[in-house]
Amino acid sequence: MQWVQIAITIVFWVAVATLAVGLIRRIRLWRNGRDAPVDWGGLLAIPRRYLVDIHHVVARDSYIANTHMAVAGGALAALALVAINYGLALYQPWLDWLTLAAAAVMLVGSYFIWARRRNPPARLSKGPWSRLPFTLAGFAAGVIGLMLVTLVPPSATTTMLALPLLLLLIAGSAELALGIGAGGPMKHAVAGLLHLGFHPRKQRFTGRSVDLRPLDLDAGDFGVGKPADFRWNQLLSFDACVQCGKCEAACPAFAAGQPLNPKKLIQDLVVGLASGSDAKFAGSPYPGIPIGEHAGAPDKAVVPFLIEPATLWSCTTCRACVEECPMLIEHVDAIIDLRRNLTLTTGELPGTASETLANLRETGTTGGHDVAARQHWAVDLDVKQAQPGTLVDVLLVVGEGAFDTRYQRTLRALVKSLKAAKIDFAVLGDSEFDTGDTARRLGDEATFQMLAQRNIANFARFQFRRIVTPDPHVLNSLKNDYPALGGHFAVLHHSTLLAQLAKSGQLQLGPTPDRRAVTYHDPCYLGRYNGEIDAPRDLLKAIGIEVREMERSGLRGRCCGGGGGAPLTDIPGRQRIPDIRIGDAKATGAAIVAVGCPQCTAMLEGVVGERPEVLDIAELVAQSLPVPA
Amino acid sequence: MTATARRIAVLAALGRNPVSGKARPNRDDLLALELARQLGGDLTLIHAGNPDEAALGDYFAYGASSLDLVPLADGGDVASALVTRLAGYDLILAGSRAEGGEGSGLVPYLVAETLGLPIVADVIAITLGDEATEVTQALAKGQRRRVRVTLPAVIAVYPKALVTPRYAYARRLAGRVTTYVAPAMEPVASPWHREAAKKRPVKFRAAETKSGHARMLSAIVAEARGGAVIAAGTPADKAQAILAYLRLHKLIDW
Ligand code: SF4
Ligand code: SF4
Predict the structure, then answer these.
(1) Which residues have CB under 8 Å from B242's CB, separation 6+?
(2) What is the spatial distance between Cα B25 and Cα B16, in angstroms, rounded to a whole number?
């Protein structure tokens, strides 16, 4: 069947050319973005990043992991074989057999995609994505059929079958080849691989990477106002999205009915980079905002033409979306970039956010408090104040919670344990200012940098070995955000220190006198941001508590709603995020929710009605200190 | 004259954060600035004082594109310094309250007096018409009064004016200060004079020991009010009863 083989060769090269043209068109769009260093070495790392880093995420859903392996693996193998055998016009029958086998694997995988999509979860996009199992199966079937046609002796039947099979192959190839240029579902294959190579946070492949990029304010960098203000590799990353909706399912703001859906946000940015309207989006809308009323272009302001400000201000920066995304897209970076532009160029923040930022500028505290009052909670505890020239082991940075009477109980409990362990510690007294975390998450980079510089200069006055803080936001700021501005500190969460002390025996703990059931809520800024999910659990175990895990815990914990300034912007939804989280806690039957963060304490305690008691780990630990004889 | 061609001046003072004492734009003057911005027109922001004060730059962040500065030494007469730059404006806006030092909130009045202009105080909204200018005044108990004003006029803005000043850092970098030569002024004798404080009687008050619930009850139920009325007895008995009360509540220690 000479002519069939030649036809396949032609189809192959036409498809390759189409793909190349499409890719060039797409690259032009990405290049509308700002410059970013091009890390060509990243391209070599693609296979490892694909097989290791992506696999970590995808393997959580083994059904789709196996299915994708069959389809993508089969397709890649079949394409490679066709490229050799037909692209180079070798026409070797044994290669045909291998191609046939690869296509068969792909066909089986396509069946499973179809099976999942018969009754799809709400998070999956429909539209063009619904045709994918058919076009992929068409491609696989076309390849299988044509291989058979070339392998069997020519006859009238094969001649008759060859033409429809070729059409099937062309249809399937069109899906694969047109994807990148026309923005179809298969765009993800090309953009996804390139995204792995040019990922804007390549540090995340070697460890945790959550620090935000400092803005060069003097150079007039005020974040992202229009799609072309993103760096080019961020634009590329948006194109990698497969609209799987894993981020949507994890997003606390979406669950609470606030107008945010991280999947739609990424798709809106794709619309912005490619010009158009969101009318074709076939997934869940932002709750309360109808689809089809927004449009964008690379040089058109994102807010409010493409995305409403309320969408950006709903985010708690909890990173649950980033944790779940199989394409390793960085939603939070995009949201912060957009917030920065709003805050720095218009100052239009909802709720009490503007007031908080003014407080930070004028008093160095979010609540507008007198810094001199920050250590009043310790007035009767005989806590040392750090003195220049005197070395202390631990500098205790207490954070904004020190002004809150509820949280002062936690601080006092912590001091009790530190004293029991004979730790040499001191507080900063009236020179402790807010780290600027809230300002930074609200996009106010100017106030953040001002506070960071002031704090770094202040820390330099004192001698200490390490900083300990019970506030994960302080922890994250000092540990991850300050290094870029020249502040390098050894920072520990109080649970980490207490767990170390309990383990080494320096802190003697008895079994807890409180026998009620306990569940533990992971603060996002401790768990997902800083990877500390074990110390709090170890500590609870050390006092004889067996944690009843909630449905979402550890690195995949659900946010309390308190991060990113979300309680200040206070975007209305159907429900409140902390209510959802307390619901999770109640479902475990626990009578106590252990927490490790002042924000979580305040958010969860703010839940009305019957609920488990909210106690900081430090309080539970202090309760278990043996009574001095 | 059309509404947008009006010349508007906003008087900008330096304020202080009441907790930290840090210099900042005066809150009420920010409201005046924001009202003026919303009116459109040709806007000038004028400050008399120390030209090196960094916090003045925050006025740019709050939306002023430039600042006319009349240098003035500490203790100089702000109103007279301002007046030297205020010729030819249709509207002069200022806040109602000062935030520190010897600030008295009288500047708009003094300016109006010197320039011989009418002043409208406690203004929360302004509508510039081609024909007439209307302002809304805040009165006691939430009442509002609409007043028609002939321009030029001075307007003192009420602290609860219906605008929200917005701080945008990018604008801070873009603002420009124009410094004028300070006019030669006779040093004014300070209208303030100092005198020693007199000791005043202090009213004794028993510390409240009742629970919130009990206090609520005593406010709404006559019987729950507590205390005693002593009508009978000698003056000495009554004095003893008062002494006992004072001792009980630790208001005297003898
Ligand atoms: S960071 Fe959290 S709140 Fe923000 S979009 Fe992601 S999941 Fe939603
Ligand atoms: S952003 Fe990531 S998690 Fe969300 S839909 Fe796209 S690929 Fe899925």
Answers:
(1) none
(2) 7
Please give the ipTM for the structure prediction: 0.87
Q: Is B17 inside any structural domain?
A: yes
Residue A145: is its pLDDT beyond 80?
yes
CA of A561 from ligand 2 middle (Å) equals 21
Give the model's pLDDT for residue A446: 95
| Residues B216, B174 share a domain | no
Kindly report, residue by residue over A51-64, the tens digit of the pLDDT: 888 888 888 888 99
Is B68 found in the same domain as B12?
Answer: yes
Q: What's the A479 CA to ligand 1 centre distance in angstroms?
A: 22
Q: DSSP labels for B221-242?
A: -GGGG------SS-HHHHHHHH
Q: What is the mean pLDDT of residues A562-569?
A: 94
> For residue A412, which of A381, A374, A382 has the smallest C-alpha distance?
A381
pLDDT of residue B226: 66
Q: What angle do CA B56, B58, B59 make, to 5 degrees?
A: 75
Query: Do B11 and B135 share a domain, yes or no?
Result: yes
Nearest-angstrom CA–CA distance, A163 and A167 = 6
Q: Which residues of A make CB contacts under 8 Å with B?
A: 217-218, 220, 222, 343-348, 354, 357-358, 361-364, 368-371, 444-447
Pick the range with the lowest mean pLDDT from A52-56, A139-143, A443-447: A52-56
Task: Find the mean pLDDT for residues A4-30.
Answer: 93
In a domain, B254, yes or no: no
Same domain, B173 and B216: no
Tell me the CATH number at B38: 3.40.50.620
Domains identified in chain B, total number: 2
Q: Name every chain A residue with its beta carbon within 8 A of the beta carbon of B26.
A: none
Among B155, B179, B203, which residue terminates a domain? B179
Instruction: Give the pLDDT of residue A155.
Output: 82
- Chain B residue closest in CA terms to A370: B19
Q: Whose CA is nearest to atom 6 of ligand 2?
A: A241
pLDDT at residue A173 above 70? yes
Determine, yes or no, domain membership for B78. yes
Q: What is the residue-wise DSSP string for A252-271?
A: HHHHTT-S--HHHHHHHHHH
User: What span, in angstroms and rounded, lies between the C-alpha atoms of A177 and A170?
Assistant: 10
Task: Give the residue with greater pLDDT, B72 vs A360.
Answer: A360
Looking from the CA of residue A247, the nearest atom of ligand 1 is 7
Confidence of residue B201 (pLDDT cuts 50, 70, 90): confident
Note the ligand closest to the C-alpha atom of A58.
Answer: 2
B55 with B144, same domain: the answer is yes
Q: Which domain holds residue B148?
A: 3-179
Beta strands in A408-522 (DSSP E): 425-427, 463-469, 491-493, 518-520
**What's A271-325 look like in SS3?**
HHHHCEEHHHCCCCCCCCCCCCCCEECCCCCCCCCCCCHHHHHCCCCCCHHHHHC
Identify whether residues B222 and B164 lie together within a single domain.
no
Question: Are residues B169 and B59 located together in one domain of the fold?
Answer: yes
Confidence of residue B225 (pLDDT cuts 50, 70, 90): low
* CB–CB contact A347 B168 (8 Å): yes
The answer as to whether B186 is a domain residue is no
A-contacting residues in B 52-81 (Cβ below 8 Å):
61-62
Query: For all residues of chain A together, what is the average pLDDT?
Result: 93
Kind of pairing between the strands at A295-296 and B153-157: unpaired
pLDDT score, position B183: 67
Site from B20, B38, B58 to mutate, A interface, most A CB atoms within 10 angstroms: B20
Residue with tokens 């630790």: B250
Same domain? B160 vs B45: yes
Whole-number pLDDT of residue B129: 81
* pLDDT score, position A388: 93
B204 touches chain A (CB under 8 A): no
pLDDT band at A574 (very low <50, low <70, confident <90, very high): very high
Residue nearest to atom 3 of ligand 2 (CA): A325
Measured CA to CA, the distance from residue A115 to residue B244 in angstroms comes to: 88
